[in-house]
């Protein structure tokens, strides 16, 4: 026997010079054991969703909405399945389990832009002033409240004041009611 035998059990030793299991085989076996202890069949959605508590957010949507007041929809993780996440990727971006690697090759792995760019906020005084001006615009130009949901109008407001949070229809309705009473 050699000077440094590897012991695998009480009765079995393998010699360095005549080994049937090499060190690389041992490393591969260790890696397989580690992999088998974790889930083998991971969903492709892991590359496209950011997990925050009980919700998963699409990184692509977050990067698309980075400079708008829109937020990516939060998908609940309580059930533990990825069906809704897979459907979102398939329906919105035509990404499936068969072609997701092509998407990742063409684009870098999506990074949530909101996390990388701290959002600028509008001071409460400035927020109120702009909201009053938007309300006056709606009244004077007899605009429907739907104008607040118009992407071009939102882009205009956010270009002028990037930190401005566009109010919901309900808030504007209250201001319109106050303006006419």
Automatic annotation (TrEMBL):
Stretches of the chain forming a coiled coil according to its record: none
Instruction: List the Pfam families.
Output: zf-BED
Q: Per its UniProt record, what InterPro entries does this chain match?
A: Znf_BED
Disordered: annotated span: 1-22
- Domain (BED-type) spans 48-92
Keyword vocabulary terms for this entry: Metal-binding, Zinc, Zinc-finger
User: Recorded GO terms, molecular function?
Assistant: DNA binding; zinc ion binding
> In its keyword annotation, does this UniProt entry include Transcription regulation?
no
Query: How is this protein named in the record?
Result: BED-type domain-containing protein
Whose protein is this, by species? Rhizophagus irregularis
């Amino acid at each position: 026997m050699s000077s440094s035998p590897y012991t695998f059990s009480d009765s079995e030793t393998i010699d360095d010079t005549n080994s049937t299991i090499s060190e690389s085989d041992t490393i591969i076996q260790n890696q397989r054991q580690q992999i088998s202890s974790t889930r083998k069949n991971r969903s492709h959605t892991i590359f496209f969703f950011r997990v925050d508590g009980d919700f998963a957010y699409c990184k692509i949507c977050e990067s698309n909405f980075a400079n708008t007041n829109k937020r990516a929809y939060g998908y609940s993780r309580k059930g533990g399945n990825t069906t809704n996440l897979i459907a979102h990727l398939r329906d919105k971006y035509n990404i499936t389990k068969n072609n997701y690697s092509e998407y990742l090759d063409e684009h870098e792995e999506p990074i949530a832009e909101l996390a990388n760019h701290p959002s600028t906020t509008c001071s409460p005084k400035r927020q109120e002033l702009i909201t009053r001006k938007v309300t006056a615009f709606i009244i004077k130009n007899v605009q429907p409240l739907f104008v607040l949901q118009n992407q071009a109008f939102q882009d205009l407001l956010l270009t002028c004041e990037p930190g401005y949070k566009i109010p919901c229809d309900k808030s504007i309705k209250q201001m319109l009611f106050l303006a006419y009473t």
